[in-house]
């Protein structure tokens, strides 16, 4: 299954969290979504949300952004 990508580098909370939630709801079981985030508050809010909703989470930091990969269980 191909990894879906969501670029939220132009968005800040609460819009980035809303877009991430909306996109994650359309994931099939075991499907991956990679989210590009630059805002630290948005990243923190997304991680909390996805942990509470039992997604597997992987986080990578790059120079200018963070890549949050979630997998729907």
Automatic annotation (TrEMBL):
InterPro entries, per database record: TusA-like (IPR001455), TusA-like_sf (IPR036868)
Domain UPF0033 intervals: 5-53
Protein name: Response regulator SirA
Native source species: Aliivibrio sifiae
Gene3D superfamilies: TusA-like domain
